[in-house]
Amino acid sequence: MMVLGLQGSPRKKGNTAFLVSEFMRQAESLGAQTCVIEADKKNIIPCKEYIVCEKKGFCPIKDDMDDIYCQLREAEVVVMATPVFFYNTTAQLKALIDRTQTLWARKYKLNLTDPLRKTRRGFMLAVGATKGKNLFEGLHLTAKYFFDAVGASYDGSLTYWKIEHPGDMEKHPTVREEVQEAVKNLLTPLMNRKKILFACIGNTCRSQMAAAFAQYLGGDKIESLSGGSRPEEKINPVMVEAMKEKGIDMAFRHPKSIASAIEKTKPEMIITMGCSEECPVVPGAKRENWNLPDPAGRDIEFMRQVRDEIEQRVSALIKTL
Question: For the chain, which terminal residue's Cβ has fewer other Cβ atoms within 10 angstroms, N or C?
Answer without folding.
Answer: C
